[in-house]
Specification:
The complex is a heterotrimer of chains A (about 200), B (about 150) and C (about 110). Chain A is built from eight helices and no strands. Chain A is extended. In chain B, helix 2 runs parallel beside helix 5. The longest helix of chain C is centred in the last third of the chain and has 30 residues. Chain C has one domain. Chain C has about 110 residues and is an all-alpha fold. The chains are: A mainly alpha (about 200), B mainly alpha (about 150), C mainly alpha (about 110). Chains A and B meet through helix 3, helix 5, helix 6 and helix 7 of A and helix 2, helix 4, helix 5 and helix 6 of B.
């Protein structure tokens, strides 16, 4: 659609990703990672996936940055010594070969939003009704909700969203169990420090 | 972390902005039927409005806004709300999470029923994401805040 | 009416991009952290306010215009506060400003 905007965003995104790898300071790489997330959010929006872009902007560029920075402050920082640079040429060669392979593979992909691809044919190659076109045609009649993405997430694919919620809850509970100190342990530590102070 | 450095400008501006971010998060959750957005995004925005006060004002002031003990129960309540919507459909004789059978409100059937249950699900997702994100932040900063209190 | 709207929009957005360009130029050209943060905070805030104002004029009296206005108020509060917090953290962290010219005068 706006190919100039997309290419500009991708150039900035690649620059931010390279900075976050190349810098020595962990804080700088955290900040450049949030910049990268925000650029990815913008490029999602240019692709028309506004819901995904919104999620990326709020979670990737907002909350994750805070968590990463807190984790950096809470943990010990490794001394900035130079990593072993053996096989440097081989690593670069593998990297470029992999990139060239990806670019070669991406030339076989259909254009975005092309209605004539096999993915969008109705009926599909297997002879069934295509899921995407079914959603597009029937989402409003089924659920009386104009935003199709919301219908897919909460109604047609309710199980997936439920599983996602359970994953988030599991992450929160694991943080709770691992990191939160119990009241008894806190009291014990306080008593121990009092003994030391006397 | 480092010792807390309280700048009055940052404190006041974050106190002004936080309720509006929270309001916008609630708007994103409730307006997810008509515009981009939904439970996950709105919940993350609600969490970020709480985290803004946590970051700027410290734990003691932000306990007035959102208690430390509320995070995990709120997350569990959100997931239970999601489960409850599915189970209500089962109780009225349908399949799990089939919202056509969500006959709690008399006189509302068919697509409207599905729309309403989508709203309930979005609220559940929003509460879960908000509670879990805030509780992860609190768990990460547990020791330091205790040391600050002592 | 539409022509006037378009004209005002073009003027405001051009001014805004000019100020943002000046801010970016300041990042590249200025010597130390505090002067860079000064350049970015002032001119970028003004630039983004002008751009959002131009977009408001372009939209006219619609709900989108009201949303842009809310974003404008948010930016007007958040951007200077962020710059203030960063500069204050740098000062508390012990970063010394460059004082080349004053040092010369004292000598």
């Amino acid at each position: 659609m706006h190919w100039e905007l997309e290419i500009t965003l991708l150039i900035f995104g690649v620059t931010a990703a390279w900075l976050s790898i190349a810098t020595r300071s962990l804080l700088t790489s955290a900040v450049t990672l949030t910049v990268f997330s925000f650029l990815m959010a913008l490029s999602f929006v240019t692709m028309g996936a506004i819901d995904v872009g919104f999620t990326e902007a709020v979670v990737g560029a907002g909350v994750t940055g805070i968590f990463i920075i807190i984790a950096i402050f809470k943990t010990a920082r490794p001394s900035p010594e130079t990593s072993g640079s053996r096989f440097r040429v081989a690593k670069l060669a593998v990297l470029f070969l992999f990139g060239a392979l990806l670019i070669y593979g991406s030339t076989g992909l259909p254009n975005r939003g092309n209605a004539n691809t096999p993915l969008n044919h109705d009926p599909s190659a297997a002879g069934t009704v295509n899921a995407a076109s079914y959603y597009i045609q029937n989402a409003y009649e089924d659920a009386a909700t104009p935003n199709m993405v919301t219908v897919i997430l909460a109604d047609y694919r309710g199980y997936d969203t439920l599983g996602e919620e359970i994953v988030i809850l599991a992450a929160g509970l694991i943080c709770f169990l691992v990191l939160r100190t119990t009241r008894e342990r806190r009291e014990r530590e306080r008593r121990k420090s009092d003994r030391f102070n006397r | 972390m480092k010792e807390r450095d309280e700048s009055p400008i940052v404190l006041i501006v974050s106190r002004i902005l936080s309720p509006f971010i929270m309001l916008f998060g609630a708007y994103v959750i409730a307006h997810g039927h008509y515009s981009p957005g939904g439970g996950f995004q709105g919940g993350a925005m609600l969490a970020s409005s709480v985290l803004l006060i946590r970051l700027t004002a410290g734990s003691r002031i932000s306990e007035l806004q959102f208690k430390r003990a509320w995070g995990t129960p709120l997350g569990i309540a959100g997931v239970s709300l999601f489960f409850g919507v599915g189970l209500v459909a089962v109780l009225f004789g349908g399949q799990f999470l089939n919202h056509e059978f969500f006959h709690l409100i008399p006189g509302v059937t068919g697509p409207m029923l599905r729309s309403l249950s989508i709203l309930v699900i979005e609220v559940g997702v929003g509460l879960a994401v908000m509670g879990i994100l805030v509780s992860i932040y609190d768990d990460l900063l547990e020791e330091d805040e205790r040391r600050e209190d002592l | 009416m539409t022509e006037i709207q378009n004209l005002v929009t073009i003027i405001l957005v051009t001014l805004g991009t000019f100020f943002m360009f000046v801010g970016s130029w300041g990042i590249v050209r200025l010597p130390d952290f505090y002067s860079r943060s000064h350049a970015v905070s002032l001119s970028d805030t003004l630039g983004i306010l002008l751009i959002l104002g131009g977009l408001m004029v372009y939209e006219g009296f619609t709900i989108n215009s009201a949303k842009i206005f809310i974003a404008l108020i948010f930016m007007a509060h958040a951007s200077p506060t962020g710059s203030h917090a960063i500069a204050r953290a740098a000062f508390r962290g012990g970063l010394k400003p460059l004082f080349t010219r004053t040092e010369n005068r004292e000598q």
